[in-house]
Amino acid sequence: MSNFLLDNYHLITYSLEFLAAVTGLFFYKKYKNTAAKYFIYFLWFIAISDTLCYYTQYVKPDRFLSFLIGTKFEKNHWWSNLYWVIGAIMFFSFYYRKILKTELHKRMIKVASYGFFAFSLIYIALNWDAFFNQFFFVLDLLGALIIFLCAVLYFIEILLSEKILVFYKSLNFYISAVIFIWWLIIAPLTFYDVYYKYEIGVGVFDKAFVDLRFQIFLFANLFMYLTYTFALIWCKLENEL
């Protein structure tokens, strides 16, 4: 079973991502006048961006991207750092500023996200070579903190409003709960990313850790995208709650 999941990791992951994205597109008319439309855009952005990461499978001696062997672009750490570690955090900070009601909460997220973005650019510039062969622990950790901040502020507003009685019908609740749990599962892995560092032309240091990492990501993604798919179908619009 473990070998099957690892052998089909990319197929399963991409299928889950596009399932959620296609579901969002199918129900786009339902959400087009709400902030949820931006979340649907985001699902498509992630599905396409993650698929582009697959280019590394063609960076091999007998494949058409063989000319990338030994270059900074041999692995996809640089792209993952851009679209997920930074891009996803900036999107969620934008999204929560759209759905939160309290101005103080919006300002807190705005300041935190802009500070994160500026710090990320500076940190990458100072660690330019490492940007192409590893994930940055400090950026993962700061990103997780911003996600937790967004979700917690949303939960506080729900607890203090009448929507607490019907929270389970809200798409934003599922978005918040799922992304909070997902990051809670994935964030601890950053402490061990030293075993996932890639040396150009050599490979990963610890294959056992890489396999375990893939399995954790796979089950976390399974939980996340199936829940999003369900929520897009089942939830009601915010103004109907």
Automatic annotation (TrEMBL):
- Give the stretches traversing the membrane: 12-28, 40-58, 78-96, 108-128, 134-159, 171-192, 212-235
Keywords, sorted A to Z: Membrane, Transmembrane, Transmembrane helix
Q: Which domain of life is it from?
A: Bacteria
Q: What is this protein called?
A: Uncharacterized protein
Native source species = Jejuia pallidilutea
Q: What is the lineage of its organism?
A: Bacteria, Pseudomonadati, Bacteroidota, Flavobacteriia, Flavobacteriales
